[in-house]
Design goal:
alpha/beta, Peroxisomal Thiolase, Chain A, domain 1, Nucleotidyltransferase, domain 5, about 20% strand, 2 domains, 8 helices, about 290 residues
């Protein structure tokens, strides 16, 4: 896909397969995202529940899911990233003998995937590249010289929860595209010279033709989303420092955010050939990917 001077393509990392986990059933009849996710954490904080109690509760809800995944997929280790891993009490409760198999939590879970993406770009001959990690509550932009966090304004982009049939239709393209374009402009503006290659991670299933799947942005099946995003970036005024590189253009590699988390696992664990690592990203809701080294 070409949009102006941007060339977009789907990136498939070797040995990495997405794995839907957000709707895994729990013993109490709820789905995993209802117990291990930002909405639940936010609700408990508003009720005055202590951070330690919140973290321990998340770990307790996650343990039976890990047991089921271990029985189904036989991973050698679980690797966890995402901002909710940093909630007090979660790491201490989860990492230990109670889990179905060993659990490793990223050293800096909120930024681990983006850091891995930046390292991957450098290895591909793209020093000075940029990573734009789109979450369902914020966008994390990372370059060699900057970390930028764009919070989602729910008054402009309200949460569109995924229906039981797995759909999440209905979001207008323009405001969603404008939000994503802001993160991309920040990435392009933060480096000198401007990045020639960008990794864009999206919190949803993603086809080879870059049509996005369901998530709380409501962009499922929207073929115009990414053309609209990069059209907005490409249309930035010439004086705007966020304008993309003029002549050579920018290569944009698009992938699922849990797949980028699996790249963080590859770098953190250096698994032996034949090892299976089950990667979970804990943010608004859990995402998953299987890494087969």
């Amino acid at each position: 896909m070409n949009v102006g001077r941007f060339t977009l393509e789907r990136l498939r990392l070797p040995g990495v397969t997405t794995l839907p986990v957000w709707n895994r059933p729990l013993p109490d009849g709820r789905e995993l995202w209802e117990r291990v996710g930002a909405p639940r954490v936010g609700e408990q904080r508003r009720l005055g529940v202590s951070e330690g109690e919140i973290g321990r509760g998340m770990a307790a809800a996650l343990l039976p899911v890990l047991a089921g995944l271990q029985e189904q997929l036989r991973p050698s280790v679980f690797f966890l990233t995402g901002g909710l891993c940093a909630v007090s009490g979660f790491r201490e409760e989860l990492v230990g003998t109670r889990a179905a198999c060993p659990v490793t939590i990223a050293r800096e879970p909120a930024w681990a995937a983006a850091e891995a993406g930046l390292a991957w770009l450098a290895e591909q001959g793209a020093p000075g590249g940029a990573v734009v990690d789109v979450g369902q509550t914020s966008i994390k932009t990372l370059t060699s010289s900057a970390r930028i966090l764009h919070e989602r304004d729910l008054s402009v982009l309200p949460l569109r929860l995924i229906a039981p049939d797995g759909t999440s239709h209905g979001a207008p393209t323009v405001p969603v595209a404008a939000f994503l374009a802001g993160g991309l402009r920040a990435a392009l503006a933060s480096e000198a010279p401007k990045p020639r290659r960008v990794l864009l991670a999206l919190p949803c299933p993603l086809e080879d033709d870059l049509v996005p799947g369901p998530c709380t942005y409501g962009w499922q099946g929207d073929r115009e989303l990414l053309p609209a995003v990069f059209g907005l970036v490409a249309a930035a005024p010439r004086a705007d420092v966020a304008r993309p590189i003029p002549d050579a253009g920018v290569s944009v590699l698009v992938l699922n955010d849990a797949e980028l988390g699996a790249e963080a696992a590859r770098r953190a664990l250096a698994p032996e050939p034949g090892t299976r690592v089950l990667c979970l990203t804990l943010g608004f809701g859990p995402g998953g990917a299987l890494l087969e080294a």
